[in-house]
Amino acid sequence: MDPAALAAKYGLSVSGARPTLTSYARQLWSRRHFITAFATAKLTAQYSQAKLGQIWQIMTPLLNALVYYFIFGVLLGTKKGVEDFIPFLVTGVFIWSFISSAVTAGTRAISSNTGLVRALHFPRAALPISLALQQLQQLLFSLCALFAILLAFGQYPTFSWLLAVPALLFMSMFATGLSMIVARLGAKTPDIAQLTPFVLRTWMYISGVMYSIDNVIDKVPHAVGVALDCNPTAIYIDLMRYALISSFGPDKLPPHVWPLAFGWAVLLGFGGFLFFWKAEEEYGRG
């Protein structure tokens, strides 16, 4: 009797075979507790060897902001024409740190956990999702420092601060989807992890983290200006700035920002999930 027919007769299936998309989503949901526990454990262990421990979650983006302020704000003068430059800069650095860290962690989501992938049966998307969740947990922790800085520079809570919640939701969907995309690419081509820092550095410079894109938009070709305006990281940074900084204010937010924020979240969130799922059978081989 044909082995394939015999296997089908007794309900046997290929080990590691890719389930349907809906079944895959259900499997992920059933392992939500593992995802959150894995993310929390990774976050706790991240600075376990440092004497200051979890304080580095706040200190790292703050030190980056200090360096960027000196180089870009003071030496290059990007603070000219930007009201509340320090809240503007710190908000940009914190949001960028979240997105870039999610991408960096995603590139090694599979390759750094090959023992887990080969030993246990579970939906592999749990790994990049948990790493993106780890970065979100770190961002939420860091937001306490951000809010303190905003208060120190005269930015007091208003109802517009509530807009940060949907902004964080859209941004998290985008970052998670992007993490799943680079996780699949990194699993197949480990060199992606070496290339990622250069891509991220370039992306940061065109995302308006240290300067206002509005101040340069008229000095570049139209196509470049459109690309800068549609840059997803710039979109999410703008959402947070307009929600939290009074000199910007949600009433001054360009009308294209919220639709683009939603569009990027859906496109990368669901697109990244689909892209990762299609290679489910390949993870852990070799």
What is the secondary structure topology, with strand pairs?
Elements: H1 3-9, H2 21-30, H3 32-46, H4 56-75, H5 85-107, H6 114-119, H7 126-152, H8 164-188, H9 192-205, H10 222-230, H11 232-244, H12 257-277
Question: End-to-end span in angstroms?
Answer: 31 Å
Shape: globular
Order of helices and strands: HHHHHHHHHHHH
Count of beta strands? 0
Unreliable parts:
none
Overall description:
The structure is a single chain. With 286 residues, the chain is mostly helical. The chain has one domain. Helix content is 66%, strand content 0%. The chain starts with a helix and ends in a 9-residue tail after the last helix.
List keywords for this structure.
286 residues; 12 helices; 66% helix
